[in-house]
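Side project, low priority. Logging it here so it doesn't get lost.
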Amino acid sequence: MSGVFIVGCPRSGTSFLYHLLLAAGGFTEFPTQMNVYDVLEPIYGNLRVPRNKKKMFAEWVQSKAFLASGLDAASLEAKVMAECVDGSSFLRIVMEAVAQKQRVPHWIDSTPTNAPHMRRIAKDLPDALFIHIIRDPRDVVLSLAKRGWTRPLPWDAKKRQLLAAGLYWKWIVSKTRKFGAGLGSRYMEVRYEDLINDPRASLTRIGNFLHLPIDYDHVRQNMSSVGKLTSFPEEANFAPAGRWQKKFPAEQLPRFEAAIGDLLQTLGYALSTDAPSANAPSADAKAQSGDGSLPTSHGSRPATDASHTTSGRSGRTGGLTAFFRVEYALFYEFKQWAKVHTPLTRWTVNYADILIDK
């Protein structure tokens, strides 16, 4: 049985893609995230230590992750105590047991924040495949802000929430692409907008990557498993792509694009100053590079402060934007390191409370 990891910035469509694969058939239904690497393992420590492992399992079976699994606690505990040595092996034991119970050959973990752990996951689980879903960050940050997930530095909480979230998007997307480049044929990228605008071609490309036939018409017939997440163009009055054009605060957009515009354009997204449309031509309509990454956009102006001179921003503003890029890159790197390598997670997070439904 093989595992598929759907990774990306939160609010980029990881759950949407999970439901599409579920509708395609052959994948486990597991409607919550496991958060093994960022939460469970840091809380309970070295799982080679029987005491830690026993405590971890005793608390895990009280969580909705266990309820979602549908497994028998006693038989699962025996296997965990005998075979589990770390977070990866625990995840594999649970998900393989779920797949066996559901009689399907593949399982999915769509915890988006698995992205910083991709190298380790790839080493621990040599059959694992990774799909990186990427969405226009201007839509992503509005969704994050709506849920209160922007989490800026305290002094930026009132005025720079969207900028902070955009810099997080850049940090995690850049890190995921860097790690993915080293995984060769085990990694692919897909655009959220392409899943919305051209789902047939996008699902065919994903199926080719997974070496599984994914029939768009079959997925359409199983839309009940996708439910309210449905974003196919045939579904009336639902347009999740390009919302930023009407809802993003106009006075914040120039600095936001100056801060992350280089990656925006690399991924084929036009800046607001370059084109009236939020969406670049479909990545599925273009040739995909050999490493599974999306093609690079050409013919756009570089995302520098000079590209926004018409907005009246001064050199000082450009300097502040550069400062924010460095400040938040260091902040997110330190925060990730602290979550995994210090007692911070153990002191501040309850595993059962942190789980998010797909």
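Brief comment: The chain has 17 helices and four strands.
Revisit when time allows.
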